[in-house]
């Protein structure tokens, strides 16, 4: 089954075209990424499996423009891998927020779209971008089934005392105000993959996964199930991120609104799009640029990177307490997989647990690697995430079931 997987993030679109035969028998036909969406200069990458990688630098003003770049590349007469866009049999989408509506993947229909739209208030940087991808595909491939996989689904196993806020209970009843988490697809995938790498039984384990990128979250996984995660009602909560503020005293919000005469929408824009790396450094939201600035001696860039490490340390520490220990700590995501200094800074704070860090192995860059020493009581792993594969698997199964039902009618 030829499946196009679309993974729209707050400032990027990752995509893969896969030929899925079974869960473990598949081939990647082409893949790529559109990065730095909305910034002055974007990056478009396209790599057919049997061809040369193409990289273009150009402004990418929004996600719709990014989708058009992807479709054009896949069907390009010189470099494309499809004779026609109609060769695609199914489309799978990553959706950040499904609220309490979804505990698994779903076939797109009007009801599913309306529920994703309802959750836009919960994920204002993401769900609208996901909907752009869905609608674009509906226009291009109106007869092709589309499947959505939710980042919040994995976190539905959190107990109520972990996901409830201590607000008047009526706000939960009326507006479903609670903690939902995000990055669940990634946390679930790397926890299982990392457990295999470390020789740990996922069903009898204490694992902490650190998905660190433009958006970042840390999750506590007990016996294969999420028991807590750092993101909350929206992907804003938790640690410092590319443009998101992370945890902040709630009274700061009305205080600044009064002082600066800001509307709720203006304040929402500030804490979601003008804070985090960008707000604190006053220069950039991109971690690679931040590293370069820090290496050049920029004090604010150094502050940003130190705060990111500190926030991860705090989250890992509290989840060790929640689970009464930890067997495995995993780093993944764009920053987690490619920043050895960050991994070292975090792990050096847990030597009291018997964690013995392998400084040489930590030099790995974007490659599955155990980065703790063999006799370490706590294992540490760099695990490359593959949300696209999870989405493709779910898409394949749902479409196969759909075809069976149609064949029996």
Concise account of the structure shown:
With 409 residues, the protein is α/β, with parallel strands linked by helices.
Task: Describe what this molecule looks like in 3D.
This protein has 409 residues and is α/β, with parallel strands linked by helices. The chain is 38% helix and 19% strand. It contains 14 helices and 14 strands. The strands form 2 sheets. Strands 5-4-3-2-1-6-8-7 form an 8-stranded mixed β-sheet, sandwiched between helices. A 6-stranded mixed β-sheet has the order 11-10-9-12-14-13, sandwiched between helices. The longest helix is centred in the C-terminal third of the chain and has 25 residues, at 299-323. The protein is globular. The relative contact order is 0.12. The model has no long low-confidence stretch (mean pLDDT 94).
What descriptive keywords fit this protein?
single chain; about 400 residues; alpha/beta; eight-stranded mixed beta sheet; six-stranded mixed beta sheet; 14 strands
Largest sheet: 8 strands, mixed
Q: Give the topology string: H per helix, E per strand.
A: EEEEEHEEHHEHHHEEEHHHHHEHHEEH
Strand arrangement, major sheet: 5-4-3-2-1-6-8-7
Give me the Rg, rounded.
21 Å
* SS summary, helix count: 14
Q: Helix fraction? A: 25-40%
Q: Hey, roughly how much beta strand do the residues contain?
A: 15-25%
User: What distance separates the N and C termini?
Assistant: 22 Å
Number of strands: 14
Shape: globular
Helical/strand content category: alpha/beta
Question: Which spans have pLDDT < 50 for at least 5 consecutive residues?
Answer: none
**Mean pLDDT over the full residue set:** 94
